[in-house]
Amino acid sequence: MDAPAPGSGEAPEDPFALHNSASAVVDAHGRVVGWSERAQEHLGYPPDEVLGRMAFEVLFDARDHEAVRDAAAACERDRGWSGILPVLHRSGRRVKLGFRARAVIRAGSAREWFLVAAPAEEVLQWETDRSVLDGLFRRSPIGLSVHAPDLSILRINRALARFTQLSTAEIRGRRIGDFLIGPDLETIETRLRRVLETGVPLIFTEQPCRLRSDPGHERVVSVSAFRMQDPSGGILGVTQLVEDVTDRYRARRRLALLNRASARIGTTLDLGQTTRELADVAVPGLADAVSVDLLESVARGEETAEEASGTVRRMAVHSVMAEALQVMYSAGEVFRFDPRTPQARCLADQQPVLEPELQSNPRWYFQDPERTQRALRLHAHSLIVVPLTARGLLLGLLSLWRAERGEPFEEDDLTLAEEFAARAALCIDNARRYTQQHQAALTLQRSLLPQELPEYSAVEVAHLYLPADPATGVGGDWFDVIPLSGARVALVVGDVVGHGLHAAATMGRLRTAVHTLASLDYAPDEVLSHLDDLVNRLADEQEPAGGRSQGRQIVGATCLYAVYDPTSRRCTLARAGHLPPAVVTSDGTVSLPDLPEGPPLGLGGLPFESAELELAEGSLLALYTNGLVEARGLDLDEGLERLRGALSRPGRSLEETCADVQNALLPDHPPDDVALLLARTRVLAPEQVASWELPAEPTAAARARHLTEATLTGWGLGELAFTAELVVSELVTNAYRYGGGTPVTLRLIRDRSLICEVSDSSSTAPHLRRARTTDEGGRGLFLVAQLTERWGTRYTRDGKTVWTEFPLAASEGTPRLW
Questions:
Q1: Three-state secondary structure call for residue 105
Q2: Comparing C-alpha atoms, which of 818, 799, 578 is closest to residue 693?
Q3: The overall pTM is greater than 0.85
Q4: CA distances from residue 459 to 112, 171, 492, 617 in whole angstroms, order as listed
Q5: Residues ≥6 apart with Cβ < 8 Å to 410
Q6: Half-sphere exposure of 668 (CA within 13 A, CB side)
Q7: 365-381 pLDDT, tens per residue?
């Protein structure tokens, strides 16, 4: 049988096997006395040309005689020799052969030498293969085991024997189950049987490997296996190569955990969610149980003003064992760590703490001895505590426990935990900063917008406010309901160009200005005119001295201002570039009144006009910003049509109507700020209002006192009659004195307070002043201011009205008339 070519990939046969090798016999004198057919094939000499001749002369070139003599001497000395020598072919060329020489003793103690030779390259290949095989079993760092078809062990190498603490001879005949435990044994035997059955090799397959001699230490091995067959295809067994890749596996797992942490932690700017994400990543990848605690100031979104041993809030807990959650503080609990705990040490020193073996050094690991003992009964045996620090600030700490996993925490685990903590701390600090800014924005919003509107006699109201920027919670749109004199109410909706805090701050200034203008009782068109002047001044403030504007202009702000009077059912409206309101009757009919369209605020120089509507009791007035009807990318007409449909269903509460409008027109995240104000009108009953026209006569004041006393007595407000008479008398006297001789109108309104109004045709404003002791008059308005809760003046086209308000006694027994 021919030997495989060198490098063919197949294992060559033994080149010195009798059927392959050339053989010869040389006597003690060096004569060739035996010659085989293979020798003739390799060297070309027939037996008759070699036998009886000196091998030294026939087979070797003169250049090689010295090497031949050395080999002969070694053979004589050692009773044998092996090596490579050049031999002369019959053709005269030199052929390198590998030799084995052994002494043969004949009868009479005669000695002959039996020589076996083969081509040198085959011998070298075979010796290399033998060396490799020997290395695999003696010097290879990778484990090697050879198994019979029944998976009993035929042979293992020294690298694998080290794990068994037995010699290679003692292991022969044993089974894998003598060394591995649990599912690890089932896994490897199942895979080896599959290789035996199918012949498909197993290549670099990783699996856990726990030894019976060290069950607490988890190893991971890489296994490759192939089936062994004889030349006829008979199955001899299976060989597996086993490499301990525990360190590589752990490094890869740590990298995977870090990648997972990068992807999972910090997906939101919510503190609670961020800490829960940290806990979820750490369990079960690194620990069996975990807790995340933040300093209480951090949990509130404030700067970290707590001391290192300060109060903490448990933000997140997670465990593979349900029982562990009964031992640990629950999420949301606020407490202080006992100074004896590793957590307190970690907070004080701001350094990580590694406790590999808890039970060997029992201390207060869970705040108190009772919790500690319960934890130890759950086999908690290893602990890591890592501070959460970011940008030089201590935020809290991360505690990691192991109980079910047998191996303790190591330095590499601590390094990984610190990486977790560093990444999480940065996300937590970002969330804290966001919380801080969000709370500041909410505070700003609460200061800029009405939160809970009080009850009004004139209207029932509901509102919807959605900023385009949910991160800040505020925007440039606003709404307002402002009580005015005479039981009237002002309804306001406005829109400042832009979003976010800049627009909100500008909106706040405009809203404050509207309140101021409303308190002066200006008509709606006058309010917008003054507001237009203010916007121009604000725009000038944003213009630097050099003339190049670097701030965002607010030209283009819009506003709709309406005043509703429940005594006359009249609503006066004016708008500055704003969309008209929707008016809904009690039967659900929706209309958009054609109001004069003034320019947006800030253009300047153009007039505003008011329009007046008469509204039936129970009418619904809807004021809104353009973000409501243009939110879904609809054109204005389509948006208004949808608004009509949402408002046209009668019989619903205002809150339900707001919800219907939101569902019909708004997406989940509106691209623009949205403000909606709904007001359902009310009307004061006739018996709540009394009005008289008094002639301009000296007896007008006395007549006014008599009418006031009689009316208040009829209303069951007799205890207010004396005070009200004094005030009415003073106001009517002033109107008679300075009104130019025209009739005076006295009106009493019983609402949530008692309202007294005196109107005349004069535009002269009454002024409160301090009279000198020598003055005969000038004390009337001072008395009015002292006797009433509020008083003021409003101007109309026909003159002015001086009004006062008296609080109604809380103990009043007469039922209200509304």
A1: strand
A2: 799
A3: no
A4: 133, 96, 13, 10
A5: 356
A6: 0
A7: 666 677 777 777 777 88
